[in-house]
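ENTRY TYPE: paired fold submission
RECORD: A
CONTENT: sequence, then C-alpha cells
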Amino acid sequence: MRTKQSKANREARAAGKARQVRSSALGKLIIMLAVVAAIVFGVAIFFKVNTIEIQGNTVYSADQIIEASQIQQGDNLLTVNKALAVGNIKAALPYVEDVSIARSLPDGIIIQVRESVVSFAVMTDTNACWLVGPSGKALERIEPAAFNENPHINGLLISTPTEGEAVSSPTPTALAAALDVMKELDGTGLLEHIRVIDVEKEYDMSIWYDERYEIKLGGTDELAYKIRYLCSILDQLSEFQAGTIDLTQAAQKRATFQPAA
C-alpha cells in the first residue's frame, strides 16, 4: 500500500514540476512578446519624421524636392523607403542627377541632391530643341529660337527624347563624341564656361570657351589628357587674352596658342 502511495506521490510531484516548467516557459514567452510590442509601439510613437532637410539644391526648391520624394511628416522614420524616394525624385525632377537620403535621429530626414547646373541646347531631327545635361539626359524642351542663346552643340541631331531620360541620336558617333567632351570637362570648372561644342566633324572637334578662346580638340583620342593639358594652359594665360588654342597634337605634348588679331 505504501509503495502504491509513494509512487502516486512521485507522479504527482513530477506532474507538478512539469506544470511549473510549462508555466515558466509561457511566462517568459509572454514577457518577450510584451517587450517586442513595447519596442514596436515605441518606434511607432517616438520615431516619426518631423523635419526634412534639403541640401545641394539650386534648380528646385526644397518644397519641390520634398513633394517629389513623397516622404511626409509623420511617416515612420525607420521604415522610410529610401530607394523608392530616390526614384521618385529622379523621375519627377529631371535636373536632379544624384540623390542620397539619410536618417537623422531622432526625427529627421536629410535629402542631398546634385543637380545639372549646366546644359546644352541640341536640335532634334524634327526641328525641336531640347536642353541636355552633361550625362546625356533630356532636361526640358525650349523654343528653337533660343538655340543660340544657350550653350549649344553643333553638328548633332537627337531623336525626340523623353524628359528625364537619356537621349539617342541617328548619328550615335556624334552623340558619343559630344558626351565624351562633356564628361571630361565636367568637374574641371571649365564646363560652365563652354558656349559651343562642335562635333560636326568627329575627327576635328572644337569648343568655345566664353567668348575668348576657340579650342581645337581634334578627335576623341587622348581626350582626358587634352582636357588636363587645356587646364594647364588656361592657368598660364591672362584673363585679358583671347585667341585659338590648338590641342590636336597634345598627345605629342605640343600645343599652340594663336592670339586673336
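RECORD: B
CONTENT: sequence, then C-alpha cells
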Amino acid sequence: MKNSLTTSAHLQTPTPGVSDLASPPIAGLQIRDATAEDMIAVQAIYAPHVLHSSATFEETPPSVQEMQLRRERVLAQGLPYLVALINKEIVGYSYASSYRARIAYRFTLEDSIYLADGHAGKGLGKALLAALLARCDQGPWRQMIAVIAGTNNLQSIGLHRSLGFKHVGTQPSTGFKFNQWIDVVFMQRALGPGDTTLPDLQGS
C-alpha cells in the first residue's frame, strides 16, 4: 500500500546491524531531507498513484497542505522524510512512519516510497529505500515493516528483498479499489541490532 513500484529478487534474510545498501550510481542523483516547499512536487508525484494505482489505498488525492501536515507529523517523531532529485528535479520520495499507534509498537516503523511517472526500474527506488534504512538503522527503532498492495507487485517485493526484507505474511482480499479485491503483502527487516538486545526505555 505504501510503494509505487510495480522485478523480483532472491530472498535475503536481514542481519541485525548489517545492511547491503549499495545502489548503482544514478547520474545527477541527490537524496536529501524534504522541505515544506518540496511538498508541492511530492503531492504532484503522489496524486497519480492515488487516482490510477493500488499502491496506495487512498482514493482522493490529498492537498499540498495535507501533505505538508503529514511531513510535519513524520518529523515530529524524529523520523526521516526524504526526496530524490535528478538534475535538481524531484523525482521521488520516501519516509518512515510509525507502524501502529499503540505504545508497544514504538520501536517498529513502516516505509513508504513513491516515484514520479517514468522513473521506475532505474534503481531510484532502491536508492531511496537504502537512504531511508541508513537513517533508521542509526535510531532507536528495531524493525521496519513494508506493507505492499498486491502479490503481483513484484518490483516492490523484489526491491525490499534486495535490501534485506523477508516475507512475513499475506492478508488476502484486505483492500478494495478499482472494483477489485487486493491482497496485502507484509515484509520485515531488522533495524540496527534488531531483537538481539533490549531497547533503551529511557524517554521512549
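NOTES ON RECORD B: The beta strands are 29-33, 81-86, 89-98, 108-115, 143-149, 166-177, 180-190. Residues 29-190 form a domain with the Aminopeptidase fold (CATH 3.40.630.30).
STATUS: closed
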